[in-house]
Amino acid sequence: MEPIDLHHQGHERTIASYLLDTEDGPAIFDCGPATTVDALTAGLARHGLALADVRHLLLSHIHLDHAGATGVLVREHPSLQVHVSEIGAPHLIDPSRLERSARRLYGDSFDTLWGELAPVPAENVHVVGELVLGLDCFPAPGHASHHVCYLDRDGTLYAGDAAGVRITPGRYVMPPTPPPEIDVDRWQQTIEELERRAPERLALVHFGVFDDVQRHLAELRLELYDWADHVRGGASEDEFVAYVRTALRDAGEPLADYDLAMPLWQSYRGLKRWADLSTAE
Q1: What is the pTM of this model?
Q2: Peptide bond before 121: cis, by omega within 30 degrees of 0?
């Protein structure tokens, strides 16, 4: 299994989607934004499939880089069935609140980055349970309260953002921490759950498939604690960005690739919001 590179904004290895076989036919895991529908269609064609051949869309969560194209895809393929958490489902059916929030964050760049955010008919939306099309499904909060993961019988964990950002072929593991829902403590519990389930490989949307699962999750845990301590200790946005970029350079990783997959200014703001809320409590 390999990622379908969605070539977001013309860049390689920024956002992936995955094609998988289920007990009810072909499915897509996370579809990317509406601006990458052509790349998704081309990726399916390389596997000998058209969009109309895909029966299901499994969503990890409703952030636009993972699920923004959902309404556009269902409009083009009305029998496509969408599986999402209970919290995420209403925002697919009526994405107006989600769009307002995202436009506040992205400003004038929203349309260029993400494109149309179309509603999904309620009859196409299914709230996930513990088993979805033969895959184990379970809550994975921390990055977002409504995040879920799917574990296939072949040992592949379709991780969304719960297992972090790592750009193939690199080794550096980055916790994506954008606003507004980062919860470091709940994310650490999610990492423990991922370790307990012992997948054989991690399929990351940002970006690639990795089989050094134990090391990867240990690195994610350490980086999440380190970033949280750095921000909670009073680091400014500029100081935080410089700190992470130094770590990336020391690891020999391409700065631009990681910053495209998870802009560091967003990661800082998500952690800063979490730190401020934690202090207020």
Answers
A1: 0.94
A2: no
C-alpha distances out from residue 175 to 2, 160, 182, 183, 248, Å = 22, 12, 10, 12, 13
Contact 27, 57 (CB under 8 A): yes
- Biggest alpha carbon distance in the chain? 54
Q: Give, in order, the Cα–Cα distances in Å from 76 to each of 54, 73, 79, 233.
A: 12, 5, 9, 49
Distance CA 272, CA 162 (A): 19
Residue 147, C-beta contacts closer than 8 angstroms, at least 6 positions apart: 60, 61, 85, 139, 140, 141, 160, 161, 162, 190
In angstroms, the first-to-last Cα distance of the chain is: 44
- Give the bridge partners for 126, in sequence order: 83
How far is the C-alpha of 30 from the C-alpha of 57, rounded, in Å?
A: 7
- Run of H or E residues at 276: helix 264-280
Contact 122, 93 (CB under 8 A): yes
Q: Which residues contact 184 (CB under 8 A, 6 or more apart)?
A: 142, 224, 225, 228, 271, 274
Q: Which of 158, 170, 207, 258 is nearest to 5 (CA)?
A: 207
Q: Taking the CB of residue 110, how many other CB atoms lie within 10 A of it?
A: 16
pLDDT tens-digit map of 155-183: 999 999 999 999 999 999 999 999 888 99
